[in-house]
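ok so I'm stuck.
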Amino acid sequence: MPSKTLKTTTAAAVLALGFLASQPAIAANNTSDSASSNEAFTFGVIGDIPYGAAEIAKFPSRIQDINADSALKFVTHVGDIKNGSSVCSDEYFANIRSQFDTFEHPLVFTPGDNEWVDCHRTNNGAYNPLERLDKLREVFFDEPGKTLGVTMPVKTQENLGLPENVRFTQNRVAFSVVNVQGSNNSLLPWSGLGETAPTPEQLAEVEHRTDAVLDQIRETFSGAARRNDRAVVLMTQADMFDPSLLAEATANPETVSGFREIVAAIIEETNRFDGPVYLINGDSHVFAENQPLAEGSPWLEVYGQPAADDLQRITVDGSANATKYVRFTVAGNSSDGDDVLSWEKVPFSQ
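replied:
not stuck anymore, here's the structure
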């Protein structure tokens, strides 16, 4: 499929994201469409922000710009609330949480590798990454089933110990936000702690989290099919198709081995689902819109998988490029197929 113009893009596929169980009422940790939710709506996505002192200083203004976009139904931060060479301190986490609390829209946040996976690095404070993940859950997910900012009920995997994995449905579009990490999904050794290979506790965490992600992806698609949803949208921190890693991954597919099961599940479910699927991610810092698993893509050989032509991927700008957010528009309930989702980049005021 040819690439599409930014402000008119309508993707060919909506990514597998976990919808809530189809129930008429909204439970404390569940959300479903209301009878009046047939009109178009918008949501915003940011990621890999704020990076460094200058961006930290601008972050309150960035939030106010998003708040001024009053039509947004919700906002998602797809991870990395700091750069990869700064300290992963409790104080920093508390500061970002205080900033998140100023959002005037529901805010869905999924952790990035910079705030826990990579915290073993000496310049990050030489923390045990699993301890930092526990702290992130304590600071940012203290009320499972509720978003940050303005409260919006969501279905979580709190029962599995992953309150950050959430699902919800809006106007027959299923959204699923899952904890998939850069750094090969957290399989790189904790070199800052003197490790040269993944530790048993590290491998156990990756296995448990990956199993939970796979469960949520499958539940998202099965719920979407059962409800006759129009599209599925999946969001992750990790860029599982990072163009800067393609040459290395082609030479050595183990470079992205931590993503293999997840990519396989997305392909299987996308090809089974009768509608578009979108994957929205951060991690690689450069805006992109493409179909990384279309027929002929080199990533198919890397992952050893068949094509999934109906998967559309959008990477949001981050780091030094985080000078705008992406506003997505979900068409009204009468639109199906490729016309469900479109997007545009919106510059920040400073």
